[in-house]
Amino acid sequence: GLPHLSPTDPAAQALGYVEDTAQVSQAKYPNHKPSQDCSNCNFYQGAAGAPWGPCQLFPGKDVNAKGWCSAHATRK
Ligand code: SF4
Asked: How many whole angstroms separate alpha carbon 70 and alpha carbon 18?
């Protein structure tokens, strides 16, 4: 795997990335749904069931399968 994306990385912070979708601030991100996480995001490239995987928006890093950011787009 790749190095884990740090939630304190400026690019991660710009999109409100967290490693656990349950930690998302609903006040800050009212459109967030608890069912949304990286594993069901269109930009996620990790293997099914893997705890971490690459994201097209953060090249060279792995994101947490249970994570979330404000660019989340549900995979069709
Ligand atoms: Fe996770 Fe999708 Fe955001 Fe990438 S774009 S960090 S896969 S929610």
From this structure: 10
In sequence order, which ranges of the chain are alpha helices (DSSP H)? 10-14
CATH superfamily entry for domain 1-76: High potential iron-sulphur protein (4.10.490.10)
9-67: pLDDT as tens digits: 999 999 999 999 999 999 999 999 999 999 999 999 999 999 999 999 999 999 999 99
Q: Which amino acid is at 8?
A: T
Query: Which protein residues are within 6 Å of ligand 1, measured from CB?
Result: 17, 38, 41, 43-44, 55, 57, 63, 67-69, 71-72
